[in-house]
Each structure stands twice: as C-alpha cells, then as structure tokens.
Amino acid sequence: xxxxxxxxxxxxxxxxxxxxxxxxxxxxxxxASMNGTNHVNTDDDDSKSGNVVSLCLDEHMKISREARxxxxxxxxxxxxxxxxxxxxLLKTPERYAKALLFFTKGYEESxxxxxxxxxxxxxxxxxxxxxxIEVFSKVHIAYIPNGRVLGLSKLARIxxxxxxxxxxxxxxxxxxxxxxxxxxxPQGVAVVMESAHMCMVMRGVQKSSAMxxxxxxTGVFKTDKEAEEELxxxxxxxxx
Length: 240
What we know:
single chain, GTP Cyclohydrolase I, Chain A, domain 1, GTP Cyclohydrolase I, domain 2, 2 domains, five-stranded mixed beta sheet, two-stranded antiparallel ribbon, 7 strands, flat, disordered N terminus, folate biosynthesis, GTP_CycHdrlase_I, GTP-binding
C-alpha cells in the first residue's frame, strides 16, 4: 500500500472533556459495585483498587470521546443532506469515530515505550537497513550502530506511531529519525520516505502517478561519503 495521509494539517480541536477528577466518584462507584460492595472506596483502600479505577477511567474516557465524535459525524451527515437514521447509516457515526481513533492512535504511544526493552549491546558498526515499511507510504530506515542495536520490528513500530497522527511528510520523516537517534545514539541515521498523497491523486491536480520523496540524515550519513554511497546502493537493490 503506497497511499499517504493527506499533507494538510488539521488544527486540533480544543478538548472539552470534564476533568478526570469530576468523573472519578462515578467510576469508583462502578468499581465498588463490581467488587460486590456498597460503598465508595476511601483513601485507605485506594491502593487496592487504584489499578482497576485507572483502567475504568481509561475506558470511560475512550467511550466519551467516541460518543462526542459520533455526534459530530451525525451532524455532518445531516448537513450534507443525508439521513443518519436510514438503513445503511445507522451505525456509521460510531464506526467512523472508532476508525478515526484507530488511525490516530499514535498519540497514545511513544517511541521510548516501544523500544526501551528491545535495545541490545552488540559489536556491529555497519549499516542496518529495514526497507519498504508500509505506513500509508513506504519508509526506509537505516542506521549505523554505536554499540547498541534495536529489535528490527521496533523500527516499523516507531514509524507507525508517528504515521498514525495528523502529519505532513517532512515532519514525519524527521520524527522517525529523531526517535531512533534518541533511543540508540548511533553513528548516523537515515530515513527515506516515498508517498503518494491523496490531495494530489483524488482532487486538486489529480496526478495519480505523482510521488513525493523526503529524507532525513544525521551523523555519518551526512559527513561520510562512503556511508552515503553505500546507503544509496542498498536502496537501489530492489529497483534494478
């Protein structure tokens, strides 16, 4: 799949959720009920139910977000002249809300959490290249270790974290590079991204074959000609 997210950055909508503190008593009452008790947890037993309360709060907040988004989508359907209550659209607002939360779940994850337990000390100082990572485009990630390497699957996970956010390609490329730089402090990092943008394919100039390529290089990939040439050679292997 080689389709990129739109490069139009949508301004985030101000969060109008109630403070978590105002929802906590309701959640605690629910937890108490689930535990077969008829009282709200006090400070003395907070430590026992803290994890359960936290999980319930997370789920409650997620449901609240989905409900607000679904209501907004219902209004959009009405504004374009559709009937959200007709067959075929009854569950569309809820499905769309869940899909949008999934497509932007990168806001709920961090590169550090993904990579912290998958870094290994190893004596390897040649290029590590993972090609053709599909994240609504194609991403190629290369780095030269400086005593530590990262589990290969984590490179794809890091790319996905930043791809599942409102993005422009240039920033996405740089964020992937910075995350690997911070995790490993390698000799150099190179990230190359190739994308087809729907804003150019489906509308506007409607150029279906247009591809956009961006790159971000650090360390030896900027200062060492030999490392740069080797990277170019490796990237061309599957193209020849």
